[in-house]
Amino acid sequence: MSRKTAREVAFKLIFENCFHKPDEGVTYEEFLSNFYIPEEMPKDSIFFELKDKLDNNDINYIKEVYVGVIEHNLEILKIISENLVGYTAERLYKVDFAILIYSVYELTYSDTPSKVVVNEAVELAKKYSDDKSPAFINGVLAKVINK
Fold this sequence. Notes:
- The chain is an all-alpha fold and 147 residues long.
- It has one domain: N-utilizing Substance Protein B Homolog, Chain A (Orthogonal Bundle).
- Helix content is 65%, strand content 0%.
- The protein starts with a helix and ends with a helix.
């Protein structure tokens, strides 16, 4: 699997976490070990789609990002909030919020080049959010980088 796809999986787990406490949703442990698949999960879910595609590097990356986001949640939310103009974090589309959480984590706690982080974030916004979101995400992340 490519790092781009592993990023997308990590984003999806973070997005789910925007709606559920980690103990209510499917945890990364369930997702990554033996691909626990809840009975009500649709067959076109990411769980089925990636079952045979994750290698150990992908699993370790996804786990590192997901655990890092949980551990640094308050710091990440503070950074996001400080860089929003005319919005509060609570008012953001959940997709955009999850993209920002993921991206701010990578910018702050990884050695991934900022250009890569921003490009991947914009691509996720193009794929999963509305037409205005890529520019919004790009603007917020530019502010984070320039501080």
